[in-house]
Amino acid sequence: MSRYSAAEIEAKWQKAWDEAGIFRATREPGKPKYYVLEMFPYPSGRIHMGHVRNYTMGDVVARYKLATGHNVLHPMGWDAFGMPAENAAMASGGHPKDWTYGNIAVMRDQMKPLGLSIDWSREFATCDPEYYGQQQAMFLDFMEKGLVYRKNAIVNWDPVDMTVLANEQVEDGKGWRSGAEVERRELTQWFFRISDFSEDLLTALDGLDNWPAKVKLMQANWIGRSRGLQFAFDLIDGPGGFDGIEVYTTRPDTLLGASFVGISADHPLAKTLEANNPDVAAFCADCRRGGTTEEALEKAEKKGMDTGLRVRHPLDPEWDLPVYIANFILMDYGTGAIFGVPAHDQRDFDFATRYKLPIIPVFTPSTGDTGPLTEAYVPPKTETVHYVRAIAGDDAQTGEAAINAAIDHCEGRGIGKGVTQYRLRDWGLSRQRYWGCPIPVVHCSDCGVVPERKENLPVELPYDEAGQPIDFSIPGNPLDRHPTWAQCPCPACGKPARRETDTMDTFVDSSWYYARFTAPHAETPTDMAEAEYWMNVDQYIGGIEHAILHLLYSRFFARAMIETGHLPQKAREPFDALFTQGMVTHEIYQTRDERGRPVYHLPEEVEGGKLKETGEAVEVIPSAKMSKSKKNVVDPVSIIDQYGADTARWFVLSDSPPERDVEWTAAGADAAFKHLSRVYRIASEIAAARTAEAAAPDADEALLREMHKTIHDVTGGVESFGFNAAIARLYAFTNTLAKSQAGGAAKTRAARTLAQLMAPMTPHFAEELWSLLQGEGLIANAPWPVADEAMLVDETITLPVQINGKRRGEIKVPRDMDKAEVEKIALSLDAVEKALNGAAPKKLIVVPGRIVNVVV
RNA sequence: GCCCAAGUGGCGGAAUGGUAGACGCAGGGGAUUCAAAAUCCCCCGGUAGCAAUACCGUGCGAGUUCGAGUCUCGCCUUGGGCACCA
């Protein structure tokens, strides 16, 4: 009997699938379709275990759906634009294009041995001109529909490298290469009008029944709908052109607790003051230092500067308030101006304490507890509090009620109006970088901003400059400094003009690739007939880190594509079901050098807690996301060499629930391999002894009952992403099969079923068993086994008996015995009689088929 | 700082509000073997006990319930996201 040899088996069956062309997706009207998509990878150069996990999960779904009679679309492509390619070119020369396509070739070669059921004929990379040219065509359509516009926005500016920095290139407020203090600068940039869809993107979340609740919640919070009051404070002796400051507040009920007005350093009023006052200018410049992330702004020390200006309180003309420029107010939110209520906002409290401003309570706890405030009092809006300075409404009311009353009151007195606001900002898509999709517009001195003509698309990225490959070691945007690329005739008047040199955010590329996969080589962005058939994505799988941006942008794009005629109405929510999988983690092995700094070691360099080479003991740091810098990485390629793809697939599915992180361990991988070997051995024995004598009939019956239960549980597990539980069930069934005294026919049937249930997870292995057991055709084409309902229920069941909620015994009863009968048997148990001691039970609970509880 | 999630044996984890710890790993004992590898069998949350068994036990503290790992509230710890990383 031969042993399980993954290398032989896997190559053989991949070839067989290829030749049979079973993963090639073609439209078959009438057959139910199923579109399964995993988030496509960035071509970093090597696949990692996270990819193995992600694509294996998708493959399980795809193969299961194939077996249940669906026409499956399971494509793969590359999210190929982005900064790493440019960084690589800067660091070690070469060209982003060569780097990227080289990486794609390597990764494709590494991915294919995994045996994924992918239709490779649909593969594309977002950096293919064929793809980004269609993206440009769509951009022009979006422009025509008014879905795109230009405005000023703030970027991270490195004053030494003279370049715009990405957030990740800002470390502690300094540029990653130059180390210079980063400044915030304004540039004119392109925006998608995603905020026009705020309400729709929010309310449509309710219909996404097969999305994780937490993703929907995160998106809802991100969109951030709020109801509030917008009104103006009158300025007393303001500079020319300014007679008021428009503010937005979600807490108008606290207006009588206002003690200052704050404006952003980028507020028009601040800019006017700055022009005439060097101190203000210095303070504003200070506010503009540091990164642009929300986190950086929130964590920065809260600072303000008194402008000397005063505003009048709208409810009391005698009352005036100071106006501060403050570094924590964002021009992008609301109106770029706020009023501060120190008694009921911690940030305002800190600010008021620092600048010795009054702290005026508006409400106090309804418990009457009114000591002096040492911190802001911020109860939930749903809590009833006692208003001591109410604008409107009762003295005792909830914040919610008070807010509504305050809005009504102010509107009635002509002070501003109630408005619904969204936190969601428009999507800035301009990037001052080379390796992205060029924005297809032209700047003409006569005509202004003019869209490029569609027949001139794609606007391709230049490969050379002045006959030489582009030099990426020079700071700045290569498109901007290119001697000829930007020169072009104006599409409107024909005079010499200049191309836009900004490229698109890579999130644009990934916002519609799912639609392109339905017709990857169409000469328009999509082919409506194909999109109509294949959309929507039935199951989308990817990392939780994309919960907000990528998924929100994709939802916006689907809507915009419908408006521009590139997708059918039904694709408004493009992903019917979403699954977010966890990461693959590994322990970190660390020693220290002579100066006490950590030195990391690869897992293969360590054995038994010691370095193989020197015997030095390593410190083991608990599992963390695999990362090159910590060296806690396991290379899928070497795992496949060692054990085969099926072992790797089996392990990443078996060890943890898919939505959680899985820790890669050598012992676990070893165990997975041993298990496959064991199943192979068991199946071989069964195949060799097929004519064995018939066994006792109840042994056959018991095995087949167990088989049907396993079919039921595994099917349920696969459908609900309970892969680890499904695999546990398969382990248990393997144990049953190994010990079974059933006859050859029953065992063969059970073993074939086992192979089928394993097929989505370990497809090559399952094909081999199938052929060993003389199954018909390819297991990949075999219909999924169906559990016989009658075999799932046992005639006799065991009921636990509790006394006061604690298990004290059990009884065996027929499945459908009636309640009274069960009660009688339960009460006659020794333990129960002893506990009752002659008395009647206080209460007797019988949950049919589940439990008996006696309360004494 | 803000938003979100997760915490169960030595470890990964299982458990429609109904027998906590399925299944796997590690560990211990045994069989087989000249020996080893491989394989097979048994044990395996803690405390007490020869045992039957009893008590404790799902991050911590309260609560709802006949019954809570599961529901509610408050805390602690860890992880993810925060708009130019993908």
Please report which band the strand proportion falls in: under 5%, 5-15%, 15-25%, 25-35%, 35-45% or over 45%: 15-25%
Q: What is the overall pLDDT average?
A: 89
In DSSP terms, counting alpha (H) and pi (I) runs of 4 or more, how many helices?
Answer: 26
- Alpha-beta content class: alpha+beta
Distance between the termini: 63 Å
Total E-strand runs: 38
Choose one word for the global shape: globular
Uncertain runs are none
**In this structure, how is the largest beta sheet organized?**
7 strands, mixed
Helix content: 25-40%
What is the radius of gyration? 33 Å
What does the model show?
The chain has 856 residues and is of the alpha+beta class. It contains 26 helices and 38 strands. Strand 3 and strand 4 form a beta hairpin. It is globular. It starts with 5 loop residues before the first helix and ends with a strand. The structure holds one RNA strand of 86 nucleotides.
